[in-house]
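Let's practice the habit of predicting before peeking. Look at the sequence and jot down your guess about where helices and strands might fall. Then scroll down.
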Amino acid sequence: MCYTHDMRYHKAVEITRPEADSIIAIGGVSLTDTVVISHGDKWYDVRSMTRAECEAFVADLARAEIITQDAQLRLPN
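Done guessing? Here is the structure:
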């Protein structure tokens, strides 16, 4: 995944899959019901984020992925 300068700052913390599994298993304190977000092969701890922040983060991840895919399509063969 390519993060561009358009990616806003987010409080999400990139974690490993085992860390995500542990967080999911134990739950814990979260501002929302969402504790982790996965995107592709990356996992993020979002327990400190509000619902609006989580939605903005997911939207930014999707935008960054589209930009990366678009750039790959434009590369000469």
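How did you do? The chain has one domain: 13-67.
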